[in-house]
Amino acid sequence: MKIAIMGAGLSGLSCALTLEKQGFTADIFEKREMAGDRFIIAEAMFSMFHTPFDDAVRYLSETHDIHLKPSSNLNKVFVYSKNETSFIDGPLGFTNMRGKHPEAYERQLAEQLKGSIHYNATVTYEDLSKEYTHIVLATGDALDTKKLQPYEVAYKASFKGAIIQGDFMETEAHAFFNNDYAPKGMGYLLPHSNCEATLVLVYPQYPENEKLDKEYLWGKFFQECCRRLDQDFKVVHEYSIKDYRIGKTETPRIGNTFFVGNCWGAITPVFGFGQFESMLTGIYAAQDIAGMGNYEKLVQPLYQSYHDSLTLRRTLEKLDNHQLDLLTKSLNNKLVEELITSKKVDFFKVLSRIIHPLPRKA
Ligand SMILES: Cc1cc2nc3c(=O)[nH]c(=O)nc-3n(C[C@H](O)[C@H](O)[C@H](O)COP(=O)(O)OP(=O)(O)OC[C@H]3O[C@@H](n4cnc5c(N)ncnc54)[C@H](O)[C@@H]3O)c2cc1C
Q: Does the C-beta of 275 come closer than 6 Å to ligand 1?
């Protein structure tokens, strides 16, 4: 068996680590200079989106021997709509760094690997398929999947982000829902430390949104963020991403080619989380290759979560600012907060099944 992994990101490295632990060696090809050779950004993993895996970091460590050190716990998330503010608190999850940051998750994974990674390796699927019996497509790019099979795009997202300086509580995140600057999307602030944070505005590129002035929306969002947190933030670095595809493949595997991470459809559409799902698909593909499981069966619950999450997104997208205010206000209700943060009830799954009673076919 000759195994090639295309991409040393979260899914590719989780796959490589799992294979290594089972005594298999893979050739890992990464087109960049190092793992995490990208702009610095803080990302998050929220337990409420990963039920029944209450604590994703502990689960990866205890069940899969993959060890990650988050930057901070998240104990409070403030939610802002146009005229309302509320918050959810409790052990909500973790923030972590990505990209060129020394503690980026992709770097932490690369450090756990005993074997080496071929960096600056621009390989094509066609070349690899001549030489390898098994290929794991882990490039993080749905367009690579599209060359091999249909990829259903739920929406393409436009991101504008910045690293900002100010005063932050490392355990607190901030989420903004306001169609005036985040049409059918959201803004969020995730701290890196007590003096630096990631600020992101993300919305779907539907035709009506494409006409809007991105810089104007960003300016409005930035002002709103400064106003709500009562600070004058300093921008130290800005970036933007366009055409980031959120969707899923028709099949997780074609012959001995395994589609993992974003190449499979790891991003849950409602709020765009995909780190944990990416790592899980990498692990599952490795388990199949190692003869310990069936990839197609293992990813079924993730397909279902994708559909549930898409149902929620389609519902949220229909809300105007007044309805978003009502929703934000409802978070102040203790019962709603308890349901959302419950470790026993998958609140978002239940909600999506109420909205869309017949489970969509996975
Ligand atoms: C701005 C932004 C914010 C996000 N925030 C969150 C968040 O807060 N929480 C969350 O859970 N998720 C978040 N996500 C989603 C999450 O980052 C992704 O789901 C996850 O990183 C996907 O992992 P992956 O392994 O598929 O791809 P990646 O981790 O991106 O890795 C792909 C790797 O493949 C390499 N590569 C690409 N092409 C080739 C090639 N031809 N040959 C060799 N190597 C190649 C790349 O250089 C890269 O190293 C966010 C995404 C974005 C864009």
A: yes
What are the tens digits of pLDDT across the range 172-189? 999 999 999 999 999 999
Q: Smallest Cα–Cα separation from 13: which of 78, 64, 62, 58? A: 64
Give CA–CA dist 85/301, Å, rounded: 34
Distance in angstroms (rounded) separating the CA atoms of residues 103 and 207: 38
136 lines ligand 1 (CB under 6 A): no
Q: What is the rounded CA–CA span in Å between residue 94 and residue 72?
A: 6
How far, in Å, CA of 324 to CA of 331, rounded?
11
Query: At 122, is the secondary structure helix, strand, or coil?
Result: coil
Tell me how far the alpha carbon of residue 262 lies from the centroid of ligand 1, in angstroms. 7
pLDDT digits (tens, 9 = 90+) for 110-154: 999 999 999 999 899 999 999 999 999 999 999 999 999 999 999
- From the CA of 122, give the closest atom in ligand 1: 42
Sign of CA dihedral 177, 198, 282, 4: positive
